Amino acid sequence: MRRLGRLGDSTPALIGAGIIASWVAAAVLAPLIAPYPPNATSLVALANPTPSATHWLGTDQLGRDILSRILWGARTVLLIAPIAVLGAAILGSLLGLTAGYYRGAVDLVIARAGDVVLSFPVIILYMIILAHMGSSALNIVAVLTVTKAPIIARIVRGLTLDLREREYVAAAKMRGESGLYIMLAEILPNARGPLIVDMCLRTGYNVVIIGVLGFLGIGLPPPDPDWGGMVKDTYGMMSVWPHMAIFPCIAISSLVIGFNLLAVGLREVGLDD
Amino acid sequence: MTDAPILALDDARISYSTRAGEVNVIPGLSFTVSRGEAMGLVGESGCGKSTVALAIVRYLGRNGRLVGGRILFEGKDVAAMGVSELRLVRGRRIAMVYQDPMASLNPVMTVGRQLMEVPMLHEGLREAAARDRAIRMLDEVKLPDPERVLGRYPHQLSGGQQQRIVIAMALIAEPALLIMDEPTTGLDVTVEAAVLDLVRELRRRHDTSILFISHNLGTVVRVCDRVGVMYGGELVEEGSIRQVFGNPRHPYTRGLLDCLPSVGRDKRRAPLVPIAGQVSSALVRPVGCGFAARCPHVEPGPCTTGTIATVAISAEPEHRVRCVRAAQLARWERRSAASPDTAGPSAAAPAVTVADLHKLYRPRARIFGSSRAPIRALNGVSLTAARGQTLALVGESGCGKSTLARVLAGLETASEGRVELDGHDVATVPVEGRPLALKRSLQMVFQNPDSTLNPSHTVRYAIGRALRRLRGLSSAEAEPEMLRLLDVVKLPRALAARRPDRLSGGQKQRVAIARALAGDPDVVVADEPVSALDVSVQAAVITLLNEIQSARGATLVFISHDLSVVRYLADRVVVMYLGTVVESGPAEHVFAPPYHPYTEALLSAVPVPDPDAQGSRMILEGPLPSATEITRGCPFSSRCPRRIGPICDETQPPTLELTGGHRIVCHISAGELTHLQGVNAAITR
To answer: What residues of chain A lie within 8 A of the CB of B409, using their CB?
Structure first.
């Protein structure tokens, strides 16, 4: 953990953490700082939706304030993306540890099951599952967890194959530790560096995917603000009122860049070894 | 030797900028290497010897730089050279050989290409001419069938052969200076001996100056004319090999020699004297002598104030020492007793009995192609470890000694045979299947200090957990026991809260020993526990192991490739070759003629830091045979320098039963062996 303290020396990490922290603050403070309720429409603004002194980022096709909707939209993204990553990391780590530690038939079954999940084109998979189960925050978390877990399992399996040969694992066996203890107490803590870096990157990917789901209309049900949904509703008016789609896009990109920069920083301070 | 030196360091000061600030690694170093001379630099890890090598060719990296003084190569200041001049000097005038040959060789190019590249690049030679040079060079480094070797890739060669290629690459441009940084450290002792002989011979022929860097005092003696001893970035003593190792003047040099086990000393006759304390960090450089804090002859005042001058010894003008008390110290005596020693402890009840143990590794069957032959790691090993004694297993890498240790520990299971421990046959019982009492009774100390402790766990947790699991103690009961174990392994109790990244190699190994002792075992299996440690640390850990073993009456199964350590520690010795036992018996018998020819070769290859003990040596020719073959005759016959004829290849050699339970597996009779080996006996004194 001392290495985390060194993050302050890394410029990318500082910028990334700064961007993420701003978005977290925006999400938490949205009820206080958002100038309008997210779903409030303004007939006045409908006449001229472009950015103005009353609506800094303009309004959308229904006269809703874009800044307010982006701020409120940050809440769902910043909740769903990390929770889904955490879920995938827990499930993936358990599968990866088991596969890497026991090897043999266990490994084969887990690896093949993961391959099956990974062999589907993800977007199609999301569409099938969400169309079937219905679109809700919980279902999006579940889908992201299941589809990302095999990737994390592969990473953890690779690390486990190396770490299981360490002498401290042999020493643990010699004092009669159970397989579960060895995986969780001896191996997992030493795999956490690469895992944390990967989780950081993957949170960024999840932000993109949540945006894509919103864009495809299988994201969060309307009228709750959702960045991807905001783009979907307005991209048809791109030639007339580009601001309606561009500002939510900027929101998505900046958050993704924030997570990527933080991951770069984590790697720089050697959390990845 | 009157002409200008090839290399001269004049008060060179080197520092690295780190997070903790500017670290003055070399606070001022001066020495010269004359034309055709071989100069050795010895010292423990962290003393700055590799930094010196890098500074000479300006390879210090971005954060290291020469902050003062000068480094002159052939009279020219290296720091003032331009990029193109430097490029010409590196490779053509100065060549380097590093520890790991694989790191110096390009894995995707054939050996021939890499060799030919040097003269083609530096001298503009045509391909055919370069090829001739390469073949000649391979012949000089004694690689059989140079034409074929040219077409090989590095991974197709053994470690010793790779290092020969690197040496050939270094010498092919006829450099004026050859810098060798630990060139034989990763090699087996017999291979090391052959490489050192080769270096010595090539040096004569090519008249190349050599800067030979090593932590191993014995290898330096074999190659060099002069030696410099480094401590904390300073040259504390410098002189000819005979002067420095014959009568060392600096207390650190004396300490190094006193803490070095040798084949001439054992624990009963000449105990090791570890150097007290540990190397201090280069961040806090003490005033006065850097060694003062650990020096047995320190005199507060002269030693701890001002700068210490380097003075020449009056009768030996070339012998210089950086010590204010050098003139007052008594003459140094080599600690070895030449008298034949008293018999060791008599045979006691066996603690572990191994009978006809076999271990086969079956490579996984392939879908395509024929199935591969199994690897025979252990081929019918039988031995007994007596209660309260130290049994050493010795042999080169690949001889099966570590596999045997892992089978004893239950980390691997045997394919055939018996391992009797406390009345149970545990040969095929993995450690998970052993009852708690058996787990308690046999514990293991591992080789690698960096991997033996979990980096995520504190010392308190590592030892405490072992106490709770093996002895069933509660957390509250484990705490005082844990502290007591820290006392036993002589670690300060304050270390309990630390994680391994804040422990030195020696400290980590002590924690590992404490952890192994947690269950109060009857048998401790130690697999190369000191091979990764510096000599002064090694001496302390060996002494500790020995003390613990005799205090507890535990059985120690000690595995090592280092015959000096084995001679020092062992009551009984088992020499292994290709998964079989070739010689066994009480240490004093195994280390005296008659030897098995393999033991003889191993012994003669041990580098001894004594200029008077350089006798003739047996060099093993040929590579280690593959462990997949089934040999009908003696497994050693393909490399044996005392092979007597076809009988060696075709018939299993008989076991010669000699006095004191000494056994040799050989076709040559004991009397004949003694006669043949009497000539060589001198070197093992």
So the answer is: 170, 174
